[in-house]
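re: ur question from the group chat, yeah i did fold both. here u go
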Amino acid sequence: MKPVRVRFAPSPTGELHLGGVRTALFNWLFAKHHKGKFFLRIEDTDPVRSRKEYEEQICDSLKWFGLQWDGPIVFQSQRLVDYKAAIRKLLETGKAFRCFCSPDKLEKDRKQAPKGGRDYRYPGTCKNLSLEEQKRRLNQGEPFAVRLKIPRGVISFNDQIYGNIRVKNSEIDSFIISRSNGSPTYNLVVVVDDHFMGITHVIRGDDHLTNTPKQILIYKVLGFDIPKFAHLPMILGPDKRRLSKRHGATGIQAFRWQGYLPQALLNYLVFLGWNPDTEQEIFTLDELVRKFHLQQVQKKAAIYDEKKLNWISGQHMVQMPAEALLSRIRELNPEWRKEENEDYLLKIVEIQKKRLKTLSEIMTHSNFFFDDPTSYDLKTARKRWGSEGVNFLIQDFMARLEIMEEWSVGLLESELRKFCEERGISSSKLIHPVRLALSGVPHGPSLFLMMEMLGKVTCLRRLKTALEKLPITVES
C-alpha cells in the first residue's frame, strides 16, 4: 500500500467549527496511525468570502489542538494555472464542452420543466456544437461555462465507512467545471489538488457523498489515480437537526474562551462518530493514535451532547497537574489574579479542578478565595438563614472559633461537629449558613478546606459581616 497521505481542506470563509475540527482530527489520527502524512489545504478560491483572519484562526486552532500538519500549506488561490491547464486539457480531448447558455435561459428552462424544475437536468443544448459555431460565438465575445461530458456507465466505489456505492452515470448532470467568469468549480479543483498532493485517502463529511461520483469522473477523464474515500457521519444537535449556532458555541474560538482544554475537546469529538469497542472513555492523543481505525467509524449521525462534553472535560481537568492548569489559565487570561501568591493560586486550582469543568469556571467560581462576598445568594439565604435564630447560632460558633489556636481542616471539622452535637442539631444546620457567610454562594469545595485556606482572621471577619446583613427580610 502507498504511504498514507491525507488532507484537511477548510475554506477561510468562517470560523473553524466542531464539525471541521472532527474532520481534521480523524484525518490526523488516520495518518499518524499509519505513519503517514497529514496536509493542510486552504480552499480560498472565493475572493469575496475568504478572509485572512479566518485563515489565521484555522491554523491557530489546529496548533492549539496539537494537530500539526506536514509540509507547507497549500493555497488554492495560488494554483489557478494548474486548474486552467486541466480545463484546457479536457476541452482539447473532447471530455468537456463549452456551454454558451446564459444563466437567465437556464433558469427559465428550469421553471418551465415538470415539477417546477425540481428534477431539471441540463438538456445538453451546447454539447454537440460544431467547432465553427463555437468559434463564431467566441469571436462575438459570448461568455461560456465549461461542462464535463458524462460518459455512459456506472460509477462504483467502496467507501471506507458506507461500503460499496454505485451511481449510474445517467443520473449525473453535465455539471459545470468552469464558470463563465473563468473561475474553476469545487469539484474540479479538489481533484486537481488531491492529485498534485498525492492524496491517498479523502476523509470528509458525508455531505460530500453526492460530490464523490462527479469527482471520480474527473479523476478518470484526467487519467489520475483515484484515492480511497471515507465519508464521516453528520453531527446533529440534541433536536436531531444539523448542528448550528442555535445549539450553542459551535465555533472553536468560543470553546477556547470558555476554558475547555484542547485535549478534552478532542477526546469528546472523537466520540462523535467513532466507537473504540471498549469501555474506555478518557483518552490521550497518543492513545487515540494507537487505537483509531476507520472501520470503527459509524454510519449513524452523531448527536452533540454538552453534558457528555462537560463530563469528559472534568475528567481531563482532574488528571492535569495544577501547574499546567494555571499555565493554561494564564494563556486564557494573563491578568487573572497576577498580584496573588502563586503557591496560593496553585492550591486553589488543585482544589477547584476536582469539581469544575473548565478553566473559565475556575476563574469565575474562585472569587471567594480572594474577596469578601458583597452579596448573598437570595434563595439560599432565605432557606439556610431564614431567621434571627441562625444569628445566635453563628455568634456562639464564632466564640468557639476565636479561641482555636490551631487552624486546620481536621480540627475545624471536629469543632463544628462537636458544637452541633452539643446543641442537638444536624451539622448541616451550621455548615450551610457558614458557607453562605464565607462565600456568598451555596456550593463550593469542602467548607473546612475553604476555611483553612481563608485563614482565621478572614473567616471571622466574613462571619461578622454576615451577622450584620442576614437574615434577608422580604422587604429587602
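okk and heres the other one u asked abt
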Amino acid sequence: MDEQSYSKTAPSVLMVDDTHANLELLSTMMKGLGYKVRAAISGKLALQSARNNPPDIILLDINMPEMDGYEVCAELKADEKLKDIPVIFLSALSEAMDKVRAFGVGGVDYITKPYQFEEVEARVKTHLELCRKKRQLQENFDKLRELEKLRDSLVHMIIHDLRSPLMVIGSYLGFVKEDKNNILSPDSVNDIAEALKASDRMTGIVSDVLDTSKLEEGQMKLKLTDCDLGRMLEEVVSGLMSLIKGREVRRSASPGRPATVLADREIVYRVIQNLLANAIKFTPENGGLILLGIEPAGDRIRVSMKDNGPGIAPEYREKIFEKFGQVEIRAGHQRYSTGLGLTFCKLAVEAHGGRVGVDSEGGKGSSFWFELPVNGPARTVTAPAAGRLRTSVIPEEETSHG
C-alpha cells in the first residue's frame, strides 16, 4: 500500500454480502492491493465480526435475508465503538430513494452494481484517507486541549499568587494616603491616590481571571440573598466617582416596584461595577453621558447602562463577551473592553439564569444590559459560551464570601 493507507499496517476491510461469488471476487481483488480482507455472509455475522475486531472500512450489501444492509448500518452507528467506521454501500438498488436511505442511516458512499473495480478501489482509498485525516485532526485537537489546560493552570497559578502581594500593596498605599500627620505634599498624596487606583484595578483584573476560570469549570458557588439593584447601582457609582471625573452619570426613573432579585450580591455588584467602568472608559470626559436604567422585564429585572461613546461595530457585539474573542479584537487593534471583565459579566449573569448583551450603533454609543430572574437561578444553568455550568446555590446565612 502507499502512504495514504489508513494505518501503518495494511487497512482491514470487512465485506458483507450474502452472495458467495460476489464476496470471493471482490476479496481476491482487494487482497491483491494489499488490504486485509474479512467476509461475512449475513448482517448478524458482520456485526459480530465488527464487534470482535473493528475493521477500518466496511463494504455493505443491502438486500440480505434476516437483516438488510440498512439495519446493519444503523446498528453500527448506534455502537459507540463502531460508529466512526466508514460504511460504503454496494447494491443493485439504483433508485434515488434507496441512496437517500443509505446516507440517512450513516453510509458515507454508495456504489451501484454492477460496478467497476477501479471505482471501488478509488472510493475505498478516499474514505480511508478521510478517516486518517479525521483521526489526525482529533488527535491534534486533543493535544491542543491538553496544552490549553496546562496553560490555563499555569496562568491560574501565577494570577492566584499575585493576589496576595497586590492586596498588601493596596493596604499599605491606603495607610500612606491617609497621611494623618500631614507629612506628604498635595502632589504626593495625589500620586499615591493614583497608585492606589491602579492597584485596585489590578486586583480587580486578578479577581476576574480567577472567577472566570471558576465559572467556566462550574465551581463558582452562589451565595443568594435579596439584592436591591437600585441601591447597588448607587453604591457602584459612588465607588467609581474618582473615574467619572467630567462625565455625567444620570439615573432614569426608578421602576414602579422595588428592583429586588435573589442573587449573589458580591458577584452582581462586580457585574455592575465592570459594566459601568467599561462605559466610563469609553465615554469622553468632556460631554460624556451615561444613563443608568432599571426596569421590569416579565419575571426578570433589566439593568442597562447607555453611553454616548464611539459605539461598537456589529461584528464585535458578541465577541466582546468571549474570552478568546477579546484576543481577536485586540489583534485587530480594536478596544471595546478593558480585559476579561465582560467575559466575567456574561458567565456570572448566565450562572444566575440571566442574560447579558449590548445594543449599539457605530458612532452613537452603546447600551450594555443584563437581566436577572427575580426569584433567583435554577440549580443547573446551561451557558452557551462556557459549556454546562453546574452552579451550587447556597443561602447567605449558611456561608459568606471570604
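fwiw on the second one: Residues 1 and 34 are 6 Å apart (CA to CA). DSSP finds eleven helices and 15 strands in the chain. idk if thats what u expected
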